[in-house]
Amino acid sequence: MIKRSKPMSERVYIFDTTLRDGEQSPGASMNTAEKMRLAGQLEKLGVDVLEAGFPAASEGDFDAVSQIAQKLKITEVAGLARASKEDIDRAWGAVQHAVKPRIHTFIATSDIHLKYKLNMTRDEVVKNAVEAVKYAKSFTENVEFSAEDGSRSDRDFLCRVFEAAIEAGATVVNLPDTVGYAIPSEFGELVKYVMDHTPNIHKAILSIHCHNDLGLATANTLTAINAGARQAEVTINGIGERAGNTSLEEVVMALHTRPNYLPMETNIRTEAIYPSSRLVSMITGILVQPNKAIVGANAFAHEAGIHQDGVLKNPMTYEIMKPETVGLNRNKLVLGKHSGRHALRSRLKDMGYDLSDEELSVVFTKFKELADKKKHVVDEDLEVIVTEGILRTSDIFQLEYQHVTSGTTVFPMASIKLSVNGRSVQGAGYGNGPIDASFNTIAKLTGTEAELLRFSVSAITGGTDALGEVTVRLKENGLIALGKGADPDIITASAKAYVNGLNRLEYLKAHPVQASQFM
Ligand SMILES: CC(=O)SCCNC(=O)CCNC(=O)[C@H](O)C(C)(C)COP(=O)(O)OP(=O)(O)OC[C@H]1O[C@@H](n2cnc3c(N)ncnc32)[C@H](O)[C@@H]1OP(=O)(O)O
Ligand SMILES: CC(C)C(=O)C(=O)O
Ligand SMILES: [Mg+2]
């Protein structure tokens, strides 16, 4: 591996707005307790500034911002406010007890917003912005000013507003791509233009705040950082208004992974990224798409045999980051129809099966047959294949016949014929339903005392003609065995699974060494 020499790096401040812009995702509203919990996690993650909410929006938001401000020990806490005294009063009221309070005030600068939304002239916007910053400044040194819809604003007017805001005391000026309209090269040029044409820009930090309407939020943020921006406004999992905001994890890991091209550092503890992502998803109820960069379920998963073989030999063949770096324990080899022998052997070894080459060949053939029918082959499938194909001899019990009656007007009943050690036995029994009736009858015929720990049904293929697959987990005298059965009729599949589980228990009773692998 080529060792990278890390160039001198500069600091990029991470401003997290999961609790404010993130909460603007439809359906993502959080209560105060949830916001507090998330704020604690974001502090652990190491964000520099946490925008806790929009205190003028509601009593609840005010309360949450105020409690977060009092709770956090090291993180700056910001409250958003329109360019109005009332909003700024509320923002200050909520953040004032923070160790480092920040008032974040904003007004739109694009002509379309001026004309249709604000009904203001450019001069009025400048005046409003200056008054708002000055008023905020009367409470705290730490004032951020945002030019909403900055990326669609006239460049020279944008520079004029920033110059006036900095003159009025803003310590951070933020250039948002509010509607996710910018293209990376264009946004980079705009940032450079602002840096070159705002005379007092060196007195403030230039921030960017991108939305993801064209899927370009991370690219725009990185280009802007390259062009001189030093604060990135982001959210966990990229949640936010409409298509969301720039995702924290993508920006941080891009800077972390590509220091030669992006020689910038953040204060983020990357190992806290994944737990933070899980918490945001759990609290907001917004699921993370499986193929989401960094935190998606598949971000470190490998399904193709050639990739799996490579990853087993050296993870860097197909992984540009270590999963541990973002707080994941390990990469995941997903076993499916594209998997090869190396991945299968490795998974079996993790499960405690050290097979010879011949045994592996037998299991591999059965595994591929199953993988053709099923998307993912999971550990329980492998257990069945190994025990069926390698460990087990002939079955003691065989299902020869099953007939059930059930419906809304009859008592569920099952008639069963089994072969027990080659001898036919039959009987009938009742139950709460046809499956319960079948299990009761089979238990009576076999004399088993096994306890049913788990029963699950899934469809191997799609549609109403799907092959139903039933899995049972049985326990007897401390031994646990899985049973599987597949059939288009799930009642038959259930009986097959139960009989299969009983056979496995019998096998384990007779082979205590193998039994230890199931504990
Ligand atoms: C790009 C962004 O993410 S901006 C933040 C967006 N977030 C939110 O809006 C969530 C919180 N918002 C709210 O709870 C409400 O909108 C409130 C409480 C702030 C205001 O509610 P209302 O007083 O009923 O006003 P409403 O939301 O309908 O309209 C917004 C008003 O603010 C004005 N306004 C919008 N932005 C600004 C600004 N930055 N500075 C001053 N005034 C502004 C609008 O022109 C409009 O004024 P009008 O009533 O004179 O036409
Ligand atoms: C309030 C500002 C920063 C905003 O969220 C936006 O412009 O998208
Ligand atoms: Mg926004």
From TrEMBL:
InterPro entries, per the entry: 2-IPM_HCS-like, 2-isopropylmalate_synth_dimer, AIPM/Hcit_synth_CS, Aldolase_TIM, LeuA/HCS_post-cat, LeuA_allosteric_dom_sf, LeuA_bact_synth, PYR_CT
Pfam families: HCS_D2, HMGL-like, LeuA_dimer
Family under the similarity heading: Belongs to the alpha-IPM synthase/homocitrate synthase family. LeuA type 1 subfamily.
GO biological process, one term: L-leucine biosynthetic process
GN (gene name): leuA
Protein's UniProt name: 2-isopropylmalate synthase
PANTHER family, sorted: 2-ISOPROPYLMALATE SYNTHASE 1, CHLOROPLASTIC-RELATED, HOMOCITRATE SYNTHASE-RELATED
GO molecular function, one term: acetyl-CoA C-acetyltransferase activity
Organism from which the protein derives: Desulfonema magnum
Enzyme Commission (EC) number: 2.3.3.13
